[in-house]
Amino acid sequence: MSFELPTLPYAYDALEPHIDARTMEIHHTKHHQAYITNLNNAIAGTDMEGKSIEDILKGCKDIPAVRNNGGGFWNHNLFWECMSPNGGGLPTGELANAMNEAFGSFENFQAEFAKAATTRFGSGWAWLCVTNGKLEICSTANQDNPVMGEGCQGTAILALDVWEHAYYLHYQNRRPDYIQSFFHVVNWDFVARKFADARR
Length: 200
Hints:
With 200 residues, this protein is mainly alpha-helical. It folds into 2 domains: 21-81, Fe,Mn superoxide dismutase (SOD) domain (Helix Hairpins, Orthogonal Bundle); 93-198, 3-Layer(bab) Sandwich (minor pseudopilin epsh fold). The protein contains 8 helices and 3 strands; from the N terminus they run αααααβββααα. The chain has a 3-stranded antiparallel sheet with strand order 2-1-3. Helix 1 packs antiparallel against helix 3. The relative contact order is 0.16.
């Protein structure tokens, strides 16, 4: 069975003014779709065909076409879910407690996450992961991710795309502005559910 482009849980313009509709449409229908098309082509006729994307990613480090496109597929799937038109604000409950324990405060978490995203040289991702029940921040290059054992070794619960195609139409080279805008659309309810699942 081939992998398919997921339907977004909101309209392309739903995250404005923080992330513009044109960027969302191009990002989803062109960039994400290209990763999926290339991934399906790369695994066709191999023993990877029919496997879950997670199983594929765990064994693809030496196959660039699968590593790059499989990572692009998985990373974007999480990224879209991490955002919501009703996002932003503050996390609550066990997630908030874990952030305070790991980073001292939500503001410190924001600063550390923004630093990981800002200082990622070139293209890549910033992640919030659960490792041994604790929160950890890291970043990865290109389309690498924690599923591959890159960066954080735990379970990713929040993803931020810092490839230029994610922000350049609206923010040009102002990556820090894009990162700060991202905090206004983070779906903390979704992240909290991922956090709870990762600790089970």
